[in-house]
Amino acid sequence: MSAKIESFPGTPLSQADLDAGKVLTTYWKPKLEYGWDAGVAISRYLEELKNGRIIGIKCSRCRRVVVPPRVVCEWCWEPMNDWVYLQDTGTVNTYSICYIRWDASRAKEPQFPAVIWIDGASNAGFLHLLDEVDPDDVKIGMKVQAVWKPAEERAGSITDIEYFKPL
Amino acid sequence: MRRTAAIVGVGYSGFRSISPDLSYKEMMYEAAAKAYEDAGVDPQRDIESFVSVAEDFNEGTSIFDEYVPDQIGGALKPVHTIPGDGIHGLIAAYMQLLTGAMDIVMVEAHSKASNALTLSDVMAYAMEPIYNRPLGANPHFIAGMEMNRYLHSTGTTEEQCAQVVVKNRGNGFLNPSAAHGARVDLEMVLSSETVFYPLKKLEISSHADGAVVMVLASGEVAEELTSLPIWIRGVGWCNETPSLETRDWEGATYARKSAEMAYGMAGIRHPWQEIDFAEIDDTYAYKELQHMEALNLCRKGEAGHLVQEGATELDGAFPVNPSGGTLGVGHLLDASGLGRALEVVLQLRGEAGERQLGEVETGLAFGWRGVPTTSGAAVVLSV
To answer: B14: which chain A residues are within 8 Å (Cβ-Cβ)?
Structure first.
């Protein structure tokens, strides 16, 4: 419809007008820094990652073993303090293949974020990355294992596990 | 006829200047577990709705409400989060009871101020971005300007404002959960650095970490749950205007309107006689005095004399901020007003320990959202 209109009323804005500062805009770059206290449950979890181990926690009422650990079972409202060491192997529950990175740049090598249910935990585990796998070979239900950073490089962080690889 | 509702359980975690041993989730859990134990309720069986109060910038997480349910027992239940003061959250929960759709609801608010490493910047981002913020002044200046105008128009003195600090930090000294209780004298306050004229350093409250949870129930259910329900008799809230150029710099109109609404609902005509004590925002020392006048607890220009004469001390005719207030307990960000309401509940239940007031039946709690806002919320509670 607009194709039939030869000239629109008013003065159109162009990118050049914006670049020339003809449209008044105020810019502000926020300075925001946070240092989150990890707390009782997650501090222990991170400490064990530093040790090269995965620790979960068990609910004494519903018997569920969850990882990451927490101080209360969200289903039972039962305090949790029964710590359980778990294997570093698990099963891919779901995944995606990212061809665009966090900063919206195009990825030459795609990323494989995945939810991994850890063996011994009750439908719980990690949101982490897969690697050493081709896009054509990734499958839901695939068995995987953690690839750890060398002990001296581990810092008590989720990135102490570099990624999970097919088993 | 309007339904009745009462607070049937309270719990809190804190209040401390830092809390490196607990995550914010664990603080919320501690407060919630205590409140549910106090009310004798199981969150999953009994509580029908959960209201939390949080501000994304304070938390450092967008869509913060997503991180709320698990640690308050609200997983798979109706949960929502509002920004505002904790008393706004209390009112939101109360209104759910008034609808008749719910009989037991909870409200939660917390502060992990110590984790927001650039908290002064977060405060600055509350300034209007196009024509106020570029001036680059520290937003505490708004309190300085307001104090200046308040003193000018009422004849209140700097000594009277400083006396609020002496009283409230002293009350905090009797409150084991206050983060900033201290014995300070008038001279210490008056000789502390003038940071935003005429506001002095010790007249600005410091932050604290902590969480507050309350369980509310509709009338009949409340009486089944506890022998000492704390009845919500009136609530009111008001925003004046964000405009620094046109607002009322003298009389805290938002507080006056909030109180009028709450008193009207509660049927209170003479607040000084009908209310026994108050916990009201004192983020800056002069604010306690200005708020007392706006809340019609005394006449304009009288609050300074009352604090000077000791009328608002623990043993005075009308105690104000027996907990220590924000100056003594610590500023709890979004939980500050709920902290004030918590003290009203504890005092009415006779559970305030060394700072317990004698013979109190009705108390007022009033929260303010801090600079640069004109946002306030009030609640009148009775045994």
So the answer is: none
Distance between CA atoms of residues A80 and A83, nearest Å? 8
Across the interface, do B23 and A40 touch by the CB < 8 Å criterion?
Answer: yes
Asked whether the beta carbons of residue A35 and residue B26 sit closer than 8 angstroms, the reply is: no
Q: Given B20, B42, B60, which is nearest A77 (Cβ)?
A: B42
Q: Say whether A38 and B23 touch across the interface (CB within 8 A).
A: yes
Identify the structural domains of chain B with CATH numbers, from first to last. 5-117+208-225 (3.40.47.10)
Domain A39-166: which CATH number of 2.40.50.140, 3.40.50.2300, 3.30.70.20, 1.20.1050.10: 2.40.50.140
Amino acid at B43: P
Contact B97/B217 with Cβ under 8 angstroms?
yes
Tell me how far apart the alpha carbons of residues B174 and B347 are, in angstroms, rounded to a whole number: 13
Compute the distance between CA of residue B213 and CA of residue B234 in angstroms, rounded to an integer: 20
This model of the complex carries an ipTM of 0.92
Of B19, B57, B76, the CB nearest to A37: B19
The answer to whether B26 contacts A41, with C-beta atoms less than 8 Å apart, is yes
Using CA atoms, how far residue B69 sits from A38, B27, B76, B174, B262, in Å, is 18, 13, 8, 34, 30
Contact assignment for B129 to A26 by CB distance below 8 Å? yes
pLDDT tens, N- to C-terminus, chain B (383 residues) = 789 999 999 999 999 999 999 999 999 999 999 999 999 999 999 999 999 999 999 999 999 999 999 999 999 999 999 999 999 999 999 999 999 999 999 999 999 999 999 999 999 999 999 999 999 889 999 999 999 999 999 999 999 999 999 999 999 999 999 999 999 999 999 999 999 999 999 999 999 999 999 999 999 999 999 999 999 999 999 999 999 999 999 999 999 999 999 999 999 999 999 999 999 999 999 999 999 999 999 999 999 999 999 999 999 999 999 999 999 999 999 999 999 999 999 999 999 999 999 999 999 999 999 999 999 999 999 99
Sort out which chain A residues have CB atoms less than 8 A from B44's CB and list them: 75-77
The Cα of B44 is separated from the nearest Cα of chain A by a number of Å equal to 8
Two tokens, residue A120: 């011994």
* A77:B19 CB<8 A: no
For strands B49-53 and A65-66, give the pairing. Answer: unpaired
